[in-house]
Amino acid sequence: MDVSFPMQNAKSLRLGLDRNFGEGKSRICSLPDSTLQHILSLLQIKEAVKISVLSKRWEFLWTSIAKLEFKEVLGQSDEKRAEFMNFVEKALLLHDSSS
User: Fold this and answer.
1) 64-68 contacts: CB < 8 A, separation 24 or more?
2) CA-to-CA dists, residue 45 to 4, 6, 49, angstroms
3) Which of 4, 10, 19, 79 has the fewest CB atoms found within 10 Å of its own CB?
């Protein structure tokens, strides 16, 4: 009995990738927007925004997350505080409040 299992296949399974699934698309790409939005809602907003660069479809998906939660670290420099406030302002401007 051959128990060898190529490492590439193990990684693909763990990452939800399947060579026979569409044309090189991962399974996560086939999920409906509502499911992806739920997944993004479990992340901190800054991480959800960072993920938006992974796919054109996901570019503004974070803007429809129902709950935005911002966590400011106390005792930051004025520069870091201004950067945080700028991020919050931009996120609120882009957020779709109808969701």
Assistant:
1) 64/33, 64/37, 64/96, 64/99, 65/37, 65/40, 65/41, 65/95, 65/99, 66/37, 66/41, 66/99, 67/41, 68/92, 68/95
2) 41, 36, 6
3) 4
Cite the DSSP H helix spans in the chain.
7-15, 33-41, 45-51, 78-94
pTM over 0.70: no
pLDDT digits (tens, 9 = 90+) for 49-92: 888 888 888 888 888 887 777 877 788 899 988 988 898 888 88
Number of helices (H), then strands (E), belonging to the chain: the values are 4, 0
The model's confidence at residue 25, banded by pLDDT at 50, 70 and 90, is: low
pLDDT of residue 53: 85
Please name the amino acid found at residue 22: G
Start-to-end Cα distance in the chain? 54
